[in-house]
Amino acid sequence: MMEQPDVRILERFLFHEARLLDEKRWDEWEALFVEDGEYWVPASRNQPDPHTHVSIMYEKSLLRAVRLKRYRHPNAMSLQPEPHSVHCISNVMLDSFDDDSGVCITNARFVMLEYRRNNTNIHGGAVTHTLEPHGESYLIRRKKIELVNCDGELDNIQLYF
Amino acid sequence: MYSNSELAGLIRDDAVHRSVYTDPEIFELEMRRIWGRAWIYVAHESQVPLKGSFFTTTLARQPVLLVRQDDETINLFFNRCAHKGAKVIEVESGRAPVLRCGYHGWSYEVDGRCKHVTGGDAAYKASGYSRKDPCMGLQKVPGVASYRGFIFASLAPDAPDLRTWLGATATSIDNMVDRSPEGKLEVTGGVLRYHHDSNWKFFVENLNDMMHAMIAHQSSAQTARVMGKELFPDDPNPPAEIQILSPFAENTSFFEEMGVHAFDNGHSYSGGKTSIHANYSGIPEYEEAMEKAYGKERVAEIFSLNRHNTVVYPGFTLKGAIQTIRVVKPVAVDQTVIESWTLRLVGAPEEMLRRSILYCNLINSSGNLVGPDDHEAYHRLQNGLTTDAGDWVSMGRYLGNEEPNDEGGFSATGSSDMVFRSQFKAWKNYMTANGAGD
Question: Is some CB atom of chain A closer than 8 A to the CB atom of B426?
């Protein structure tokens, strides 16, 4: 029987994750996922799955590894000049807690600015994390990002939410 | 205002004037004379399955409304109320017994006839209008035709026969349909809308530009290739992600051998016997279903056609081998939206759809690993062409080296600029012809 964590502990985890992304500490960020943990940005509201409906992004470790290598590649045209992000995470809530496994599902709201070459794109939405306990902290089994404009016309999205 | 001879003077055999990509006045003329004269893809029949099903989109920027009448008939209306001119239907799709304008409540039958005028006809007694007058109903787009479920429309009343106009690119559509064991496709799985800050022609040209992939997509495709070899060294069937991304980094001779093929009206395709989609792992359950439906010999024939991109000029592009289409929506001289749709092969196992969806996620979404580099290239073109370095953009590579092919067009080595020359020949024809669109 696991004890339900204080929401502030989970909040701290989400803040830490966002900071790793903004500081481009990609390997540390990837290490936050369980093996084959999912990162999913659906392309429509209430999208049932990432397999029979298109998504803006659906990546497990293999595709994230390709993308993270691309970030460091000398000939990645659209990353020159490189993009930068800033994440703000708020309204963090614990939606469900499994007292057998300790798995927590959190829901938060976020705004992310993606800046590149004098252009700032504003992204925002809800983010749901499925978190597995790991030592003193957690690992991400699934991160689902529901953009408020998921079904709109979207420009390049090059950084992780 | 450009005269026809000035417009013709923008196109040389081996080069095109930069203003075709940068001048807003030319863009406006293109909307009337190319996008207002050619057949433009609207939707697939499966998107309006039942009587009263509707789908809204744009045709050369104008809002249009596609409505299923009955089993056989589909009407395409300008999405404009006959009363004050408001768009009648704002949502993307749905089903309705009548089409009602939300402003003053005028309503229309699904066949476009005016059904109800708020307050009754008496108000128009003095004006002499009657609900029965065609001008009181929804106005039809002049040309609508369907080829194997793909609906096209033309703003010109004198558009040529669609099948004839499609020419050899009709066989790319055939090949996609034939890949269904039931000979039937269904649009499914949503749409991706990718905004580009660049002229529509850069995208259209790039699809059959066989010289850019291994350079522009090196950072993702070469990376996937190397990782595939490291992680799955002896696996003939590495994960689909690796199989989809790696061929973009094939060497130049692979793309030269794929070849390009150009036809009348600016249409083209690349690949044929092989393409970047040719070496995906087989899906035995699918192959069995196909053989049961068509017999071994015919199936071999269907699968032997493996085209890369087919461009139905100006704005419809398809990949038969992976069942996706990309629809070009010009917005302004330097703004374009690309819509990506996926088609289910009816009667095929779901794994086929999953592969098409995965392909779209990886190659067509705004967050994908390949498209931002293409978009960046278009952006740099849009920017570079504003300089005083020169007015002409070269399209002279392998000029004159093309050979007639047996489909009535011409074929050339992959890196030839023949496709671009062919597109601008059609461009010039449309832009300088007299008649509709003037």
Answer: no
Rounded-to-integer distance, Cα B255 and Cα B260, Å: 9
Q: Say whether the peptide bond before residue B404 is cis (omega within 30 degrees of 0).
A: no
pLDDT at residue B134 in the model: 87
Instruction: Check residue B11 and report its DSSP letter.
Output: B
Residue B437: what pLDDT? Answer: 59
Taking each helix axis from N to C end, the angle separating B350-363 and B284-294, rounded to the nearest 10 degrees, works out to 120
Residues of chain B with pLDDT under 50: none
Which residues on B lie below 8 Å from A67 (Cβ)?
Answer: 220, 369
Question: For position B436, what pLDDT does the model report?
Answer: 58
Is B217:B248 a contact under the CB 8 Å cutoff? yes
The terminus-to-terminus CA distance of chain A in angstroms comes to 33
Whole-number Å distance between alpha carbons of B21 and A110: 38
Range list of β-strands (E), B197-305: 260-262, 268-272
CA distances B194 to A99, A111, B37, B361, Å, are 43, 21, 25, 12
What is the phi/psi pair of residue B13, to 5°? Answer: -60, -35
Residue from B243, B357, B362 whose CB has the most chain A CBs within 10 Å, to mutate: B357
pTM, rounded to two decimals: 0.97
| Predicted pLDDT at A116 | 97
Domains defined for chain B, CATH in brackets: 44-147 (2.102.10.10), 168-432 (3.90.380.10)
Q: Which domains does chain A have, with CATH numbers?
A: 7-46+54-147 (3.10.450.50)
Amino acid at A133: P
Complex ipTM over 0.90: yes
